[in-house]
Fold this sequence. Notes:
- This protein is of the alpha+beta class.
- The chain contains 15 helices and 22 strands.
- The protein has helices at residues 7-11, 22-25, 27-40, 165-169, 173-181, 203-209, 216-219, 221-232, 244-249, 256-262, 290-298, 300-308, 354-368, 375-388, 421-443, and strands at residues 14-15, 18-20, 43-47, 56-62, 65-71, 77-81, 96-98, 102-104, 111-113, 118-120, 146-150, 153-157, 188-190, 195-199, 264-266, 272-274, 314-316, 320-323, 328-336, 339-349, 396-398, 413-415.
- Strands 13, 14, 15, 16, 17, 18, 19, 20 and 22 form a 9-stranded antiparallel β-sheet that branches. It has a 4-stranded antiparallel β-sheet with strand order 6-5-4-7. A 3-stranded antiparallel β-sheet has the order 1-2-21.
- A hairpin with a 2-residue loop joins strand 11 (146-150) and strand 12 (153-157).
- Helix 3 packs across helix 15 and helix 11 (290-298) crosses helix 12 (300-308).
- The longest helix is centred in the C-terminal third of the chain and has 23 residues, at 421-443.
- The relative contact order is 0.16.
- Residues 42-141 form the Rieske domain.
- This is Rieske 2Fe-2S domain-containing protein.
Amino acid sequence: MGRYDSPAALAALVQPHQVHRDIYTDPEVFQQEMKHLFANAWVFVGHESQTPNKGDYFSTHIGTQPVIQVRHSTGDIHVLLNRCPHKGTKIVIDRQGNTGKFFRCPYHAWSFKTDGCLLAIPLKKGYQNTGLEETDSGKGMRSVGDVKNYRGFIFARLAEEGMSFEEFFGESLSSLDNMVDRSPAGRLEVVGPPLRYMHHCNWKMLVENQTDTCHPMVAHESSAGTAVKLYEELGLPEDAPKPPAMEIIAPFMSPYDFFEGMGIRTWPNGHGHTGVNHSIHSDYSAIPGYFEALCDSYGEEKAKAILDENRHNTVYFPNIMIKGPIQQLRVFIPIAADRTVVESYIYRLVDAPDELTARTAMYNRMINAPTSIVGHDDLEMYERAQEGLMVDGLEWVNIQRLIEEDEDFEVEAVENGTTERQMRNQFHAWVKFMTMGQKTEAAE
């Protein structure tokens, strides 16, 4: 028995105002996360535009489990475990491609339909009267427990039984709705491969940082602060149009009262967003023809309502963040207790001006690329924290800013934009989904 084999031991790592460092550093806790949390939660897989044609596939991970998103012959999208049921060989090693009408294992040539069903086995006579068809291996590639295509975004739950998609996300889907509705056609398309790079830290540090509004003006002073200073030294008139790059980077240096006034909204199951009232994306220049295109599709009143919503970062627990105003999604893929791969995707608004996509791509390069000057401010803080948490003597991490007595995380709440309630909300969900499977096992 390990230290964290029981639900009680895992739950004890989270207190109302603090969490134990083992949550970030202990390999056993990490393995329990992969076994329970990432199985019980609904996890982002990909976007339907990554597999537009029949036979198209895209390989990725749910937690540490390799999976394949594939477009079946019916046009539906399936999510399969990337493992041959015969000897365990990975079926797909390319990131994406087209498999045609079936998958074929490269080891013994077992083949499977694109919904995972067993299609053919060489020398099948050798399995007559062996009972193969009654075994799991004889049923083909295994699908994940459940799949949902929500407005083009593919989510999956590994567990066969559990919380429904609708219950898991609830009202938080309004952020995804707003991002998709910004397209006059109501559709998004992924633009190219993601920016991808390794972080030497625990995956939860990145998730927490998305709603941490007390760090930008401090951690980013060396990057955004320097850029603002150099721009101001140009001595341009105050009414001079700002270059797009400055519109993107300057708001990172906004003062504390700006972020306090933004507001933070939290939803049950660990979801939440910054930018209730305004955000760093609120004052971007208008793109000619865009508002008119939205009005043609939705009418002026709804078009204004769509664009007036400028949410900053929406966290979908456990491991993605979206930015609706610039059509970006970041997924934090756990590799080990101290290793996380970050993938930053951008999307095109179908039937919208191309200038919007160009601005989104510029934001992604400036803020999220491996060469970013802003992203590496955060990266250094994560790695310092990962190292610092190994220091003996202080075993707890504080998350009690603006804490209230008897906080209820099963209801929606809107609070001061510098509260750490969303971090507490995430850890409340962490305990909930970490222990859900184990409680079920104990009951059985």
